[in-house]
Each structure stands twice: as structure tokens, then as C-alpha cells.
Design brief:
7 strands; 219 residues; alpha/beta
């Protein structure tokens, strides 16, 4: 591990937002999935969530630009499970959904725990998701089309969330719990070695200030 690389990893991790995320409900096109993850990384979202009955999702790496390595993606078997999981963690779930109850996305307080819910490319969020979420939000459109591409809509909303959080100085210091910070730091710095430790159910070794291993355990 080169010290410069280690410092960059820490700089990025220091700005990660554990209470800002995206939930993708059956977003099937790999290039859209990848673009959404790339934006999550750009605004400092720690994780993303996807609903897939098949149990896995496919990203298109040339679009993701490696961001899938830096944003943890959790796949849920159903919309109900995904929304319940987020709400149990005190997230408010905001569905990008045109309805009579929808508000301008800029009216949302994104400094609070927030999850942006995105639906399928063709049909948007499901009726069930629209019922279970906390609020519908819309991006005002001035042209003939009524909506943006799902990955573009995600970018517009997330960068508004980033703007609010910058103003609130939420990127100025790490917001992760120390134990979670150390775990993620090791996994980012030494992904292959971290996998070996997980397979053996062993704790990760400590790192010094330059990112070098202080111990290697039994590996």
C-alpha cells in the first residue's frame, strides 16, 4: 500500500455519508445501475440498495468507472423488505414519483437520514412502493417530456442532497462509527486480504498511519 493511495482512501472515507442512500426498485439496465452507483460515490453515499427477485444485479463496469468497489450494494428480495429495512434504520424514503401528493425535491431536508427511491426505467416506482414510502418528490420539468432518465434523475436529486449537506458542514469530519470506519478502511485498502480474513472468520489486522499492516494474524 503506497502512502499516497492510503491517504486518498482515507480522505474519501472521511466524507462518506452513512445516512444518505439510494434504493433502486427493479432498475434492470446495467448502464443505469452503474451510472447510479457512480453518482452515489460522487456525492459520498456509503451504500446503495436494489430490489431484485433474481437475487443479483449486473453493473456495466465502463459506466461505473470502478465505483461499485466503493459503494456497498445491498440486494433485497422485495420492495417491502427493502423499504422496511431502511425505515427501521430511521431513513425517510423519498420516491421519485409524479402524484398529487408529490413535492418539489428541493423542499426535502436531505440533511436528515434520506433514501431516494427510483423505479423501473419504463414504469417508474410500483404502486406498492408509492404506498409504502414516506414522500413523493418530483423534478419540475419545463419541456414536453414528463420525466428524466432514471440515472439522470438520481443525479439531480443526490447533488441537491450533497449541496444541503455541504452547507450544513456534514462533510467536514468523519460521520462513521470508529469500528465501522476501521472495517471499511481495511476492506478498501486491502480488498483481497480482507476476503481471506472473512473466509476464516478472523478479525482484520490493525494498520499504521501509512496504511501498512501492523500484524498479519495467521495469514
Amino acid at each position: 500500500m503506497m502512502p499516497r493511495r492510503y491517504r486518498r482512501i482515507r480522505e474519501v472515507l472521511d466524507q462518506r455519508q452513512p445516512d444518505l442512500t439510494v434504493m433502486m426498485e427493479n432498475v434492470h439496465k446495467p448502464h443505469n445501475l452503474s451510472a447510479i452507483l457512480r453518482t452515489c460515490d460522487a456525492v459520498g453515499a456509503l451504500e446503495a440498495h436494489a430490489v431484485s427477485e433474481k437475487g443479483a444485479v449486473q453493473t456495466f463496469n465502463t459506466t461505473a468507472q470502478g465505483s461499485q468497489k466503493w459503494v456497498q450494494l445491498t440486494v433485497h428480495p422485495s420492495t417491502e423488505v427493502a423499504i422496511a429495512h431502511l425505515q427501521a434504520r430511521s431513513f425517510r424514503v423519498y420516491a421519485a414519483h409524479l402524484s398529487d401528493q408529490a413535492i418539489d425535491y428541493r423542499q426535502v431536508d436531505f440533511t436528515q437520514p434520506s433514501a431516494v427511491l427510483l423505479g423501473t426505467e419504463k414504469w417508474g416506482v410500483s404502486d406498492r412502493a408509492a404506498q409504502l414510502c414516506d414522500q413523493h418528490v418530483v423534478i419540475p420539468m419545463m419541456g414536453m417530456v414528463e420525466s428524466l432518465n432514471v440515472s439522470v434523475a438520481n443525479s439531480v436529486i443526490l447533488f441537491e442532497a450533497q449541496r444541503q449537506r455541504i452547507m450544513a458542514k456534514m462533510y467536514d469530519q468523519s460521520r462513521l462509527e470508529p469500528e465501522a470506519y476501521d472495517r471499511i478502511l481495511f476492506e478498501w485498502a486491502y480488498p483481497e486480504l480482507a476476503e481471506k480474513y472473512r473466509q476464516r472468520n478472523e478479525r482484520y489486522p490493525r494498520l499504521d498511519d501509512e496504511g501498512q499492516l501492523l500484524e498479519r494474524g495467521s495469514l
